[in-house]
Design a protein that fits this description.
single chain, 274 residues, alpha+beta, Arc Repressor Mutant, subunit A, Beta-Lactamase, 2 domains, seven-stranded antiparallel beta sheet, two-stranded antiparallel ribbon, DNA binding
Length: 274
Amino acid sequence: MRLLGSQPARAFSLAEITRELGISRATGHAILTTLTAHHWVVRDVATAAYSWGPGIASLTRPADDRVFHGIVRQLAESTAAQAFLAHREGNAIVVVDSAGESASGMRIDRGLRMPLVAPFGRDYIAWSPASAQRAWLAGIGKPSTPLYRRITAVLSEIRDRGYTVERLGREYRQVYTALRALRGDGEPDAITARLARAFADLTVIDVLDSELDESDTHSVATISAPIFDDDGVVAMSISAAPFAELTAADVTRLSEKVCAAARRIEPRLASPTS
């Protein structure tokens, strides 16, 4: 893990890993198979190379995520909207803390588990290696050409600007209601994969900066920013959930506050009580 974590964006071949560690190929393969099963390592099917897996982020979070409640509450107060904190558990994203209320009455419940399958979890996947992004996208089957192009453009823009925008529409409400009803462990299965695929096909994913000025207002459910650990891996995310019509200026203002909250949490990940 130290070898892969030293260059989280790079993929290593089995030969490189075993040579560096001085172990046999059989031993290396057995270890990597186990790590891959836990999503701590990602194996690229096309190249058979291994890279730092997003599941490792769950090992670095504090035991009590509510230690950041003050920051979550301040974000809610400054945005006049619900704010919530989430982290990754395997192939699911779990809401672990929240504060405030949105004027619309809609809210994201603490304990909600979202499957980490396209198009959900973009704030976690945008900075992952290409192999992890392909695995994430493959969770909904082979995407159409327009959907593939849209997701590619969205992930690139998220990396550039540092946050995601979830559109609020009928499809979002229906999928969110269905996920709440399903509950379970949040791990992707046939039902959640079909829900995610339907959502991806029926809605326009995210709001690109070039689209902000195309209309006076935008229906926005959430604005989310990643929280990076010391290794540059996305360990958590923090969001504001206005569930409202926002102008381009509103989106910019809220995104700045959300990103600022994320940056305040990052130095405290290693020592959350400091």
